[in-house]
Amino acid sequence: MTTHTGSCHCGKIAYEVDGDIDQALDCNCSMCRRRGGLLWFVPRAALRLTTDEADLGTYRFNTGVIAHHFCPNCGISPFSEGKGPDGSAMGCINVRCLDGVDLATVKIVPWNGRDH
């Protein structure tokens, strides 16, 4: 298993996440369509914030079940948190915010979040 590091643009929000990226979702919901993130879902326990949690900005929309975190300083959204379909705590990692990941090697799967 690989440990990845990631952050927002300015570094005020940084984290480590354990796992091997098998795919990333390219979601077309109103949020993802605008921010352009590629999403990799992991168990929440695999995600460790390495900066102060108080620095997170958080936005919730629609049903409010996903905490979309962003940096109030640079505006980048490096990850979100929510519940999986089985109710387990999940981290939703923006693969574009991970250090050293070659997106050409990641299977990108379209996801119709607009209609879900």
Describe this structure in words.
- With 116 residues, this protein is mainly beta.
- The protein has a single domain (3-115), classed as Beta Complex (Metal Binding Protein, Guanine Nucleotide Exchange Factor, Chain A).
- It is built from 1 helix and 10 strands; from the N terminus they run βββαβββββββ.
- The chain has one helix spanning 30-35, and strands spanning 3-7, 14-18, 24-27, 39-43, 47-49, 57-59, 67-70, 79-83, 89-94, 108-111.
- The protein has a 5-stranded antiparallel sheet, with no helix packed on it. Strands 1-2-5 form a 3-stranded antiparallel sheet, with no helix packed on it.
- A hairpin with a 7-residue loop joins β6 and β7.
The CATH topology assignment is: Metal Binding Protein, Guanine Nucleotide Exchange Factor, Chain A
For the largest beta-sheet, the strand count, sense and barrel status come to: 5 strands, antiparallel
**Strand pairing plus helix content: what structural class?**
mainly beta
Highest-level CATH class: Mainly Beta
The count of domains is 1
Q: Mind telling me the C-alpha Rg? A: 13 Å
Please give the share of residues in helix. under 10%
Give unreliable regions as ranges. none
Strand arrangement across the biggest beta sheet: 4-9-8-7-6
- What count of helical segments does DSSP give? 1
Mass-distribution shape: globular
Beta content:
35-45%
What's the SSE pattern?
Answer: EEEHEEEEEEE
CATH architecture: Beta Complex
- How confident overall, as mean pLDDT? 93
For the terminal residues, how far apart are their CA atoms?
A: 31 Å
Number of strands: 10
